[in-house]
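Thread: Hydrogenase nickel incorporation protein HypB, structure

OP (GT): Posting the sequence first so everyone is looking at the same thing. Length is 221 residues per the record. Can we get the structure tokens written out before standup tomorrow? I want them in the notebook alongside the other entries.
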Amino acid sequence: MKIKMDDDVLKDNNIAANFNRTLFKQNQTLVINIMSAPGAGKTTLLEKTVKALAKEFKIAVIEGDLATERDADRLRALGVKTIQINTVGGCHLDAKMIAKTLPEFQLEEIDILFIENIGNLVCPSGYDLGQDYKAVILSVPEGNDKIPKYPLMFRRTDLTIINKTDLLPYVQFDLEEAQRDLRTINPDAAFLALSSQTAEGMEDWINWLKKAHTHAAFSQN
């Protein structure tokens, strides 16, 4: 038996992603797919982001985890509409999972929808969810080797965020080296360094989001 490898194994996912993208565009909702390894600080960054933008933008979140609703509860405590997806072992979210959650939202009232993907530097990079932008978070304690060791993730991102810069005095991490590595793999990606704990550099992230919302595809119609 022969298996043709030239068939698009992600065909069903991409159909669902295009459905999602059309729906987001129709409702003028900016969608950011946030990816990282476990513990890089995705949820903490979202908490601080919600607090910074709550007066200006209506925000919602799709929260991906293997199990529990702990991160979702943290965001709900801030008054943010948050839908939990538990994959029960799956290492990434896919577009069909996202599509199933969308009836839970009033998209026409949401300015920015964040999708917090499963903590993994491999699987999530290959799945289009219908998002406008992909953002990858790399935390300082993870070390400088992660960008060259996981090139697909960083090659497919629109923005790389170096988080936990407050730990730079205590661990070996070179911001300039990280930026050079990213430029080698993905010269078009934006690069930000910040600490979601101390808020150092958060203004750059907030400004990036505001520009992304202004320049989203639906704003050009």
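GT: Both are above now. Quick notes for whoever picks this up: The helical segments are 11-26, 42-53, 70-76, 95-101, 146-149, 151-155, 175-185, 202-214. The chain is about 35% helix and 20% strand.
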